[in-house]
Amino acid sequence: MSAQMDTPMVIQLRELAKTYRTGEVDVKAVRGITLNIHRGEFVAIMGASGSGKSTLMNMLGCLDQPSGGTYLLDGVRIAGLNRKQLATLRNRKLGFVFQSFNLLARTSALENVELPMFYGMPLVPLREQRERAVAALKKVGLGDRLGHHPSQLSGGQQQRIAIARALVNNPDVVLADEPTGNLDTRTSIEIMGFFQELNESGITIIMVTHELDIAAYCKRIIVMRDGQVISDTLNANRRHARQELDILNQAEKTAKLA
Q: Sheet containing 9-22: which strands, arranged edge to edge?
């Protein structure tokens, strides 16, 4: 079920499966998933531990190969691509945001954001790398923190650096794995506000989360259990982060005046 049936499909899955061999036992982590994700969607993938959502995300990110079925990323069939081809496709088409930020501790915000461009083919000229990294950091509100190291920044600021890094190669899809898992409630709302703004600008976002409160900011919610999709619905009661932050700010101002 898609919110944007008139837009091109960026992800197509047909009977996608993943089986792991553990000793003498085959563990079916993903069991024949078929779904489409259209350009411009904001999708939450939910499920309990062991539901297969992380395995599915790894396959969507071309970090793991399926055991069966078909995966097309922006029309490119993933099966049969070699390691170098997969790396190139990841770098061009996908941006990644993780729960633990995955920033280099002794490297500035600017240098952390420049990293994905070091692995691009063709190589991005150094001047363009700097310009694109600065623009990405400004986009997430950190244009005044270019030289700061992760230890000098809050958790929310570190996650915004990670988002800027995910955007610097202008990906078609941003994959976010529990991006608010290490953040407090207010900061989580702020980060979801950034994701909503990015989605409104046309970027497709797929987010793994186990928190219903976080999934509520997405346009579409897919729920998994035992390696299968058990529900796929449009979110009719979507939460809007900017509105919630305005309410929080007003409440804080009122409390200070009381």
A: 25-38, 9-22, 68-73, 76-77
**174 and 208 Cβ atoms separated by less than 8 Å:** no
Indicate if the pLDDT at residue 147 is higher than 90: yes
Look at domain 9-257 and name its CATH class.
alpha beta
Distance separating alpha carbons of residues 205 and 176, to the nearest angstrom: 7
Delimit the domains of the chain by residue range. 9-257
- Span 175-212, pLDDT tens digits: 999 999 889 999 999 999 999 999 999 999 999 999 99
Rounded distance, CA 55 to CA 80, Å?
19
The alpha carbon of 88 is separated from its chain's Cα centroid by a whole number of angstroms, namely: 18
Residues in contact with 135: Cβ distance below 8 Å, sequence separation at least 6, in sequence order = none
Burial of 175 (0-12, 13-18, 19+ CB in 10 A): buried
